[in-house]
């Protein structure tokens, strides 16, 4: 049941990525290309996603635990350090070069395009490179 | 290459992205971060860490096919850069998102919604560096 729920969660997210245009690298480039062929659509993606998540999280957190686990696993690290800022800055540079980010590329695998496979293989190589350089860091998200 | 301004599809799609994030919190109590899900798959230490992430990724991969079944066409998708740029950008994305502990989904959608101080710093940082990168590539180097 937990796995079916997880699959459904991924499907909902992926349909959102597909409909929103976030899946399309051409649209991602144009969102950032304010001086050129600007397309502000992706601001609406982030807006819609944050509004729903902001409200939805607060409703979910009224529960004492999630449906299929004993507790919520929410990061409580509040430290602003060089890793956070430097890593985020580096991530943005890569995003601006390739036009893909991981959350858009995983659903994009379903289009069957080889460019997506190449991108995700490269991302995985980047994970390994980071592990080699800074082995002490854990890989917990956010 | 121009793309159409799609405020309604983007807002609706964004709402579904948010719904996915809320469902994951409801079901498994986790943040929906694509970087964390991917690196959790690649570096999983046991099958329980692996299996729910694999199920999620499988659901994500099915989504363009579901769109095709319902609407009769695949989502619009075009890649205006060379394979070399995809590969270089991908390595940088993997390195940076891993070092910064998150990307557009984890810091962007989930972190901002939690009002996480780290995410409130991370998101403008990567938006600005992405915009500068696109500006330099398209308008300074003229690629």
Describe it.
- The complex is a heterodimer of chains A (142) and B (143).
- Chain A has one domain (2-133).
- By secondary structure, chain A is mainly alpha-helical.
- Chain A has helices spanning 2-20, 25-32, 41-60, 82-98, 102-108, 114-133.
- Chain A is 64% helix and 0% strand.
- The radius of gyration of chain A is 17 Å and the shape is globular.
- Chain B has one domain (7-140).
- Chain B is mostly helical.
- The longest helix of chain B has 25 residues, at 47-71.
- At the A-B interface, helix 1, helix 2, helix 3, helix 4 and helix 5 of A face helix 1, helix 2, helix 3, helix 4 and helix 5 of B.
- Total strands of chain A: the figure is 0
Give the H and E element order of chain B: HHHHHH
Q: DSSP helix count of chain B?
A: 6
Multimeric state of these chains? heterodimer
> What's the overall average pLDDT of chain A, rounded?
94
Q: What is the CA-CA span between the terminal residues of chain A?
A: 27 Å
Main β sheet profile of chain A:
none
Work out the largest interface and the residue count of each chain.
A-B, 119 and 117 residues
């Amino acid at each position: 049941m937990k796995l079916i729920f997880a699959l459904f969660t991924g499907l909902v997210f992926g349909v959102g990525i597909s409909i929103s245009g976030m899946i399309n690298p051409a649209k991602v480039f144009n969102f950032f290309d304010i001086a050129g062929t600007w397309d502000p659509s992706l601001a609406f993606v982030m807006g819609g996603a944050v509004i729903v998540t902001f409200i939805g999280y607060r409703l979910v957190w009224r529960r004492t635990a999630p449906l299929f686990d004993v507790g919520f696993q929410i990061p409580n690290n509040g430290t602003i350090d060089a890793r956070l800022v430097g890593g985020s800055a580096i991530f943005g540079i890569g995003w601006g070069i390739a036009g893909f980010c991981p959350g858009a590329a995983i659903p994009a695998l379903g289009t069957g395009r080889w460019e997506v496979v190449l991108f995700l293989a490269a991302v995985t190589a980047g994970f390994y490179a980071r592990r080699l350089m800074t082995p002490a860091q854990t890989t917990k998200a956010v | 290459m121009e793309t159409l301004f799609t405020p309604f599809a983007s807002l609706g799609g964004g709402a579904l992205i948010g719904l996915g994030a809320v469902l994951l919190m409801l079901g498994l109590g986790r943040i929906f971060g694509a970087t964390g899900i991917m690196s959790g798959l690649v570096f999983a230490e046991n099958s329980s860490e692996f299996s729910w992430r694999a199920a999620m990724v499988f659901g994500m991969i099915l989504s363009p096919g579901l769109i095709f079944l319902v609407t009769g066409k695949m989502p619009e998708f075009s890649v205006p850069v060379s394979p070399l740029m995809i590969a270089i950008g991908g390595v940088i994305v993997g390195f940076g998102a891993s070092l910064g502990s998150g990307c557009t989904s984890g810091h962007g959608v989930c972190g901002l919604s939690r009002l996480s101080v780290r995410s409130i710093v991370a998101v403008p940082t990567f938006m600005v560096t992405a915009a500068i990168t696109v500006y330099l590539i398209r308008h300074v180097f003229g690629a």
